Amino acid sequence: MNKYLIVGLGNPGEKYRYSRHNIGFLIADELVRKQEQSFAASNFGQVAQFKYRARPITVLKPDTYMNLSGDAVRFWMQKEQISIENVFIICDDLNLQFGTIRIRRKGSDGGHNGLKDIQSKIQNQNYPRLRFGIGNEFSAGHQIDFVLGMWSEDEMKLLPERLDTASNAVLSFVFEGIANAMNNFNGK
How many domains does the chain have? Predict the structure, then answer.
């Protein structure tokens, strides 16, 4: 049976918990909550392991900070012997409107430093990923403040439903495959 590694990218600590950049952690939290599981401290981060429709899943929230996520991904791929096509990275995307989901089979890092580090450490960019739109409503020179900033009041109202949809997209990837997940969730 194929094993899966689901990695939600983010930064550890309460300071960043509800920042836009931590959407990967929030989606991972929702996925694990819906399976009535919990995270435990382990190598390179917080980990939850469970089966979904008989498929073994490891969900990882690296504690290495976003821009150093590659070591954690490489460690868990090797430890659990998970092939690259069964690794699913969840990250934020400035180029998508708030709440929009884009799933891809492979691709470049798109300027995302977390993805850049992963690709450097695993020497491969052919892994599936879910990009969650955080929008780009910031003035010139304030990208970092925006990304590390908290969700707006309006976004917070919509976030629970978007987290539910994104976590369902992850489960679709695991059970139905990347093509169906892309068809069913891209642009939603």
Answer: 1
